[in-house]
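Backbone geometry:

***
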Amino acid sequence: MLRRDGGTLGRRGWQERAPMVEPVRRAVLVGTSDGIGLAFTGRLLADGWQVAGLSRRGVEPPGPAYRHHVVDVTAPDYPQVLGRAIDDLGGVDLCVYFAGVGDPLDLDDLAAEHRTFEVNLTGAVRTVEVVAPLMVAAGAGHLVGLSSLADRLVSADAPGYAASKAGLSSYLLGMAAALRPRGVHVTTVRFGFVDTKMAKGPVRPLMLPVDRAVEILMDCVRTRPVVVSRPRRLAVVTSALSTLARLRLLVGR
């Protein structure tokens, strides 16, 4: 017989049931020094997560459940630092890749385009290389990568940014299909303009506040979708502009 408070009635009378203990939730966040990454860190900590953050700049620890590791995702020792961060946590349930750069094209400094690919795409691939096997071994986990609605664009202003995000989206979608049968979920988040230092340019339509972006990410953590594109109206416009730009290139106009 079950009591309302969870106890049971046995031969020796009422017996108290041990209270349910919530499992420790452990997150590794890459790119937490500012913007969405920093705000999302605070939200997870407020919800009781243990968090390890990695970025190329140090940050003031926002709480005792947070550990920070200073490293650049392009550094040779990045995989080792990432692995140690996970070991310190005792495992990883959620990994979010926030790191990203996106400067306008400078034809006198094309090396900047190379770094854009290193951070936006190669850094994410190196992260998955470390994290995915651990999640597969555990039979559970969630990987989230922040891509962009620009992944559909042909951009003369920032070709490296658009192309690296296109590569990231394609890679994450492929990994989602490969890892789901192993119990691991992968989500591609395609944001438009978010009110951070990355939002450059004189025109920034339908720009999302950072707190709204965090809420969208929290919903992703709960529901684990394959793709999320926000704002929806901008996603539709971006898709149409992409088609138009490709047609113009084909006809030479």
The domain at 22-251 is CATH 3.40.50.720 (Rossmann fold). The CA atoms of residues 193 and 207 lie 5 Å apart.
